[in-house]
Amino acid sequence: MLLAGIFQNGFDYLIPANLLGQLLVLDFFFWNLGTPLQKSQTGMLRAILHNALSKHPELIPSTLPNIYNNWKDTYLNDKPTFVEMKRALEFFMEKASQFFKICIFIDGIDELAGEHKELAQLVRSLTIRNVKVVVSSRPINPSVKVFRGCPTLRLQDLTRHDMDQYIRGNLVNHQAMCQMSRFDPQVAGGLVSEIKLKAEGVFLWVRLVVRLLVDGLEAGDSVMDLQRKLRSLPRDLKDLYRRMLSKILPEYQVQASEMLQMFHVWNTYTSHQPLGVVNFAFAMHPLDEAFHRPVAPLNLDQYIWLYNSTEARIQSRCCGLLEVGRDRGPTNAALDWATGEDNDGSAVRYMHRTVAEFLVSSEVWEEMSKMTQHSGFNPALNLSSVCLSMLKSASNITITSASKRMLNNLINLLGSSICFDGRVLPEYMKGMGPSMIKHQDLFSHLLGGEASRDKDWLQNFRSDVEKAISKHSAEPFKVLDKRRLLEPLFAVHNTSSSIDLHGLCPLRTIQAIRMKVALRVKLNFGIHMLLLPMHLASLQPPHMDLSPPRFNSQIPGGLTAVQSRIKKLQID
User: Fold this and answer.
1) Which residues form the Nephrocystin 3-like N-terminal domain (predicted)?
2) CATH of segment(s) 2-152
């Protein structure tokens, strides 16, 4: 992510004053842990074209004439092909380069999920008059061959001075090392030279090794201990990560596995949204705590205590593979968290993105999963409790993009294929009712519309569900099954209402009374509707086959209608 770092830390100051307004800068950063579009040629072409045409919309008609002229007949889900995108980008470059100088930055082409030689050739073909392309990559053979003869920089040739400064600032100037150097003045210089030689230009390796040596210094290591440790450390980053994992204390290994699994699953299902320290603390707590947590805000002292204790647990359990951002600190983080926000500057994160690549490798992930396979641990369920606990504990949630994402995170995590659990899902549903009442200003817009529309919607929903169940039932549909399967709709409220639902709910039971209240309190009813299909799939009575794949594929009419209504409820 070398080029990504340049953009994040400001790029405008690099542009000469005489080129301001005449230079079009475009970029794309490959990421092999991201979505398919983040690691494909098609994704690169689409991103660069979108960036370019957003800055110069006057070129849309000539660059994408078919889409422009037929936009009324084009469905939103229609995706342009790779050939169309390639032709469009080539045309844009040829046209725009007559008026602008164009510079394209493409980072990490070695992280492509596909044929690297084809990508390298495509990138090189973009370099016409007034167009420059800057590429970063590990020295893989296809890139080396295709770009042979092009101007090249080797990172290791440019980082020696920075490495020297980092080692001296963090190791040589350490108090314990200064005391040691009084008796052996050559020791510091020898360690600096050996670290730089072994690092082979990889700054991250230097950072990790210096941290390990400083830990040794603070534990009382001698000069010989430090030298022995340095010489035993592997040069390869993945081998170094494996060594760090092996140093986790036995009593912490299961907790470390749970923490690393949860962080990976969170990133997978939330598209790498920030995960705050206190929310990570909620994920580490037993599920029952989220269910029984009162609907009341955390005060500042509680938040800071949770923040500091969780940061200490991350440091002691994860051996530096996970860390906490220090840009804002616990007090400022508490202010963000109270409104439903998690600022990236105070969130849990990987020490480096290569840690994520290492952890999801099949061998390492299998080893971590074995540590928790007999405990019933389910990272998605634990993370679902984060969303529920935050809804209960945040003091002033507002309608912000972050708070909207938070509710969708709960739905995505509960709906993931790895967390169907008929025992705990109703508990989430029960916990959502009081939480949604607390934040009704945020959630009351979920259903909207007139009461009659809600009734029609409910009636159609019930009909679709019952038809789907009956289709898979080996026996006639029973009232008992109906009551059991629809019980989650009425699990929260037990008071009566004057709303007349005659004919809508034929069951003359307490469930019918609760149905009336659920309709009146629409914000509670909305979340029940979002979670009900998952609950149906999790129950699976003996005489029914409601497994999600078959349920989805063989009931297209009924379930499609259900899904479309559910999508209308989800927060945009």
Assistant:
1) 27-138
2) 3.40.50
